[in-house]
């Protein structure tokens, strides 16, 4: 994000946000600017959002900065959502004595950035969340505010926290301390959602009284200031439904930019314990993650789980009290399922806050301006994004269910329980496009109409917005009968594949993770039994160094293969290869079309691996693999098979015979992989060995074999579908980085008539693209000639970024910034430019949203964005 006084529009997680006055100093005593505040919010978003999501946010704003100790800045509390707020900010209504107030909900990085833009430095939230019906749920956490009186301080608060901990543990709760960034400590513990705010307040009050009775010289439970000298107040009142507490990871409006930061109990024992500033918090989180990450249970799914028996239905039935951390950052995915239950209907499900908010639509999405009924149903688990199969007769929703269309959506408006306006982008051959195609995008509004009766209260209407279109609504059965085609990815079976009651259940998918880039729905259909279903997005690794491998954890070390990621779907001999961006690449690699022969003792599996091309010495060569990209003609594909044959390196398993394995540990999944894959059955398939925790030996072997580096994986970790995780850490020998190609300069001399160099950009502060330099070495003359023809077709008149130096821009030709390349570089300069970059190749498996920010310049969206 450029530091300029001129307002500018940036994109954050696909949202457009107007930012201004980035050089304004908000913390005069430290010189901290608004730009630095926005950068902090961008980087902290992945760990902060799970604690603020779904909760109405009361804000404390300092438009002119916090001031100094001697001259504090003016601030004001604000509850109502500002009229100037972007339309895409998720919001919820709370009834007050004077009528309802609409609050913003910090559900994503873009909303956090907007709050930073308006100098809402402090974000206060209650201990409860909104449900998808717009109603207040029971609290999912308890909080005790340990507030030191005169003569007491942080050491006394830590002492009281240690006294409270065993009491909460005796209640089956595991507390996490948070140094508040102001004076004291907050203690949080997760709840199962079965008790009201009034119940929890009463328990907290009684706990405070009991500790006061046992430790009268240290603890007080009464808020009278005259009683608090030298003692610590256990403030239990913040568990009231009407009270709020500073959100974990929120900045504070103090003279220094301190933060309310979760701590470990070991950190609380440090004699030098103090409140931390935002730069320290970022370093701390990078080193050890978030101590509160696994606090919340899936109480949003309690209704869903109560209506299903895992032993009787093939549907996914998660533990309603199980950890929700892997789903908290789920992206904007949708699925529409055609449901042949007692009455035919379509189920529209939108990924929102770790679950699928669901409506049953009897007549499907309208194809014109008429309104259709949409009945709000219970929230469904994220696994339902990929579910298809037959629910047995007599069970809830019994009947055949198939995927009519699936994809991603963008929010124009989301008002909890009131109104939702989204644009759905489905598959090219999906139901939204219809049998006549080619459109696959629809903007729809869902509006709660309500009613007097219990059932009427669930009634909404769904409306196709003006200027949008949906293909003629045809059911899957009608398609099969009329021969009007199938929806490809969006259909699970063709006319020969209608599931039998005794058939093995189709895949139930996997828990999808966030992103700030999207949920795990990807892939396109190929012929073959069971091949027409979405593929989960792969888990991604975090870039790091040897020192990031915490010594108290067990790590397995795998080689890092210099290829392209592939999710491999095998079903009764049929093979489908899906890239990490969701493209079906099966046809590009015909030599892998029979790798299904490697399955041993099972009928189907979903595997994770890397497609590589080997050089003359048997080492993976990314430049050689470039010969296999983007071909459509059979002759070109055949030439690639001859000149640059590929191998498939498999390193994980996500599903076996329709049963998800993503919640198994890494060790268990590796054991399963070795069991179900016979690598000797195919000459181009391998299950490479892993090193057992010796990072020095692994790195030495990687260098000796000419590989990129290693990937360290926690042996106790689960597979986080579609998410970047510090449970996997990639350690490279050289510095490589992806970049977006924004232009090119004509060649001279022996490169006359070809590309001389390519101009590159990467996300800078705030996530907006910023110039990163140009690369002119590492590619051949033939490539440069071909690229000129390709790039001339993609030209635009103006530069996509505004910070290109005049010399570099002198004879530049600008292009649409939608292609990604990988370069190797010596280092980064102080002004954020690449030092001596060298071309490595195009990355058609990535989009600009997948490009990591330059080191030291965090993007404003989730860091879970680049390949593993």
TrEMBL record:
Residues 639-764 form the ATP-dependent DNA ligase family profile domain. It holds the Pfam family LigD_N. It comes from the Bacteria. It catalyses: ATP + (deoxyribonucleotide)n-3'-hydroxyl + 5'-phospho-(deoxyribonucleotide)m = (deoxyribonucleotide)n+m + AMP + diphosphate. SUPFAM superfamilies: DNA ligase/mRNA capping enzyme, catalytic domain (SSF56091), Nucleic acid-binding proteins (SSF50249). Keywords: ATP-binding, DNA damage, DNA recombination, DNA repair, DNA-binding, DNA-directed DNA polymerase, Exonuclease, Hydrolase, Ligase, Manganese, Metal-binding, Multifunctional enzyme, Nuclease, Nucleotide-binding, Nucleotidyltransferase, Transferase. One of its GO terms (molecular function) is DNA ligase (ATP) activity. Its cofactor is Mn(2+). This is DNA ligase (ATP). The lineage of its organism: Bacteria, Bacillati, Actinomycetota, Actinomycetes, Micrococcales.
């Amino acid at each position: 994000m450029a530091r300029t006084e001129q307002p500018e529009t940036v994109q954050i997680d696909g949202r457009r946000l107007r930012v201004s006055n980035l050089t304004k100093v908000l913390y005069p005593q430290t010189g901290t600017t608004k730009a630095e505040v926005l950068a902090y919010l961008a980087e902290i978003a992945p760990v902060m959002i799970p604690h603020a999501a779904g909760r109405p946010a009361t804000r404390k704003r300092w438009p002119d900065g916090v001031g100094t100790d001697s001259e504090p800045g003016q601030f004001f509390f604000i509850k109502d959502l500002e009229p100037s707020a972007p339309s895409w900010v998720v919001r919820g209504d709370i009834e007050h004595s004077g009528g309802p107030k609409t609050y913003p909900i910090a559900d994503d990085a873009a909303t956090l950035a907007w709050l930073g833009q308006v100098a809402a430095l402090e974000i206060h939230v209650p201990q409860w969340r909104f449900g998808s019906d717009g109603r207040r749920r029971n609290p999912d956490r308890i909080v005790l505010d340990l507030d030191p009186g005169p003569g007491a301080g942080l050491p006394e608060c830590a002492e009281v926290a240690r006294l409270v901990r065993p009491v909460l543990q005796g209640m089956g709760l595991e507390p996490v301390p948070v140094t508040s960034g102001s004076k004291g400590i907050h203690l949080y513990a997760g709840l199962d959602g079965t008790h009201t705010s009034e119940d929890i307040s009463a328990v907290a009050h009684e706990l405070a009284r009991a500790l006061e009775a046992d430790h009268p010289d240290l603890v007080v439970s009464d808020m009278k200031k005259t009683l608090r000298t030298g003692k610590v107040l256990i403030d239990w009142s913040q568990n009231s439904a009407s009270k709020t507490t500073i959100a974990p990871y929120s900045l504070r409006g103090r003279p220094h930019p301190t933060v309310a930061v979760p701590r470990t109990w070991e950190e609380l024992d440090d004699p030098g314990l103090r409140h931390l500033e935002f730069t320290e918090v970022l370093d701390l989180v990078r080193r050890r993650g978030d101590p509160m990450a696994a606090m919340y249970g899936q109480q949003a799914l309690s209704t869903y789980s109560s209506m299903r028996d895992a032993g009787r239905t093939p549907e996914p039935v998660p533990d309603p009290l199980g950890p929700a951390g892997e789903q908290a950052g789920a992206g904007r995915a949708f699925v529409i399922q055609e449901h042949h239950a007692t009455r035919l209907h379509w189920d529209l499900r939108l990924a929102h806050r770790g679950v699928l908010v669901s409506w049953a639509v009897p007549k499907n999405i309208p194809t014109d301006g008429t309104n259709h009924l949409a009945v709000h149903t219970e929230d469904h688990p994220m696994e339902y994004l990929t579910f298809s199969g037959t629910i047995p007769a007599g069970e809830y929703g019994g009947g055949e269910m198939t995927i009519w269309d699936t994809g991603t959506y963008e929010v124009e408006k989301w008002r909890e329980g009131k109104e939702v306006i989204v644009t759905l982008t489905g598959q090219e051959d999906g139901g939204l496009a219809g049998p006549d195609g080619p459109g696959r995008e629809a903007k729809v509004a869902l509006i709660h109409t309500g009613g007097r009766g219990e059932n009427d209260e669930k009634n909404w209407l769904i409306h196709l917005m003006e200027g949008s279109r949906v293909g003629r609504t045809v059911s899957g059965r009608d398609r099969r009968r009329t021969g009007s085609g199938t929806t490809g990815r969006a259909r699970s079976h063709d006319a020969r594949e209608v599931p039998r009651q005794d058939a093995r259940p189709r895949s139930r998918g996997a828990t999808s993770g966030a992103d700030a880039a999207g949920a795990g729905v990807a892939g396109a259909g190929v012929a073959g039994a069971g091949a027409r279903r979405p593929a989960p997005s792969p888990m991604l690794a975090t870039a790091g160094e040897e020192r990031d491998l915490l010594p108290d954890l067990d790590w397995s070390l795998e080689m890092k293969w210099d290829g392209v990621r592939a999710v491999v779907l095998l079903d009764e001999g049929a093979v489908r290869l899906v890239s990490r961006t969701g493209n079906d690449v099966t046809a590009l690699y015909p030599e892998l079309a029979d790798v299904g022969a490697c399955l041993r003792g099972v009928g189907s599996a979903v595997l994770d691996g890397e497609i590589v091309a080997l050089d003359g010495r048997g080492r993976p060569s990314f430049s050689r693999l470039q010969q296999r990209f983007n071909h459509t003609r059979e002759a070109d594909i055949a030439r690639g098979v001859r000149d640059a044959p590929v191998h498939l390196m498999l390193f994980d398993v996500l599903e076996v015979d329709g049963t998800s394995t993503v919640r198994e540990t890494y060790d268990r999944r590796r054991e399963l992989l070795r069991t179900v894959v016979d690598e000797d059955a195919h000459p181009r398939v391998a299950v490479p060995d892993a090193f057992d925790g010796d990072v020095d030996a692994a790195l030495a072997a990687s260098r000796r074999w000419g590989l990129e580096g290693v990937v360290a994986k926690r042996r106790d970790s689960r597979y986080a579908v579609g998410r970047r995780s510090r449970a996997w850490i990639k350690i490279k020998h050289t510095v490589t980085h992806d970049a977006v190609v924004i232009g090119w300069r004509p060649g001279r001399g022996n490169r006359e008539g070809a590309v001389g160099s390519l101009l590159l950009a990467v996300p800078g502060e705030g996530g907006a693209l910023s110039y990163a330099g140009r690369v002119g070495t590492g590619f051949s003359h033939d490539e440069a000639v071909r690229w000129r023809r390709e790039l001339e077709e993609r030209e635009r008149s103006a530069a996509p970024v505004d910070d290109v130096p005049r010399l570099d821009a002198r004879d530049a030709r600008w292009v649409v910034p939608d292609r990604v390349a990988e370069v190797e570089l010596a280092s980064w300069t102080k002004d954020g430019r690449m030092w001596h970059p060298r071309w490595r190749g195009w990355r058609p498996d990535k989009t600009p949203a997948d490009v990591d920010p330059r080191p030291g310049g965090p993007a404003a969206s989730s860091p879970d964005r680049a390949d593993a």
